[in-house]
Specification:
single chain; alpha+beta; seven-stranded mixed sheet; 5 helices; about 30% strand; globular
Length: about 170
Amino acid sequence: MSTMNFFVRIATPDDTDTVGAVLAASYPALLASHYDKDLLARVLPMITRANPRLLASNTFYVAQTRQGEIVGCGGWTPEHPGTGEVVKGVAHIRHFATHPLWTRKGVGRAIIARCRNDAAARGVVKLHCYATLAAENFYRAAGFTTVASADVLMGSSLPFPTLIMQLELS
């Protein structure tokens, strides 16, 4: 998938540093208005690192400019985050971020479209995600509905408020 300014490709382990840079730029800036400063200070070190398993999954993507800059990332896995459980026909949206200088330019939409298409091609009929409070409107615009609020346990004892959202694929 491509646009005039960037294209979406499958991420590789070689993208670890650049994906980490996007996460580190995105999350502090975009989550600040939705979460307590002290909570973010504790959570950000855990969520701004690229996940090696996702980068090697072939279902995690980056948005890359024609000049080679990575400006967004995100993907999906058949495994439920945290438990590894697999339910046939269900997949989970994972670790989405757009560099703050690239928001509202179609980066997230292009990556979510790639996720939808590739997941559907592999027999997925429903996508789930744990959305940050800041991302609810993005996922709604992509067709997801909010199912419930949930705290995701970060580390061994830090609850992080999220929204469980889902999308039925046709």
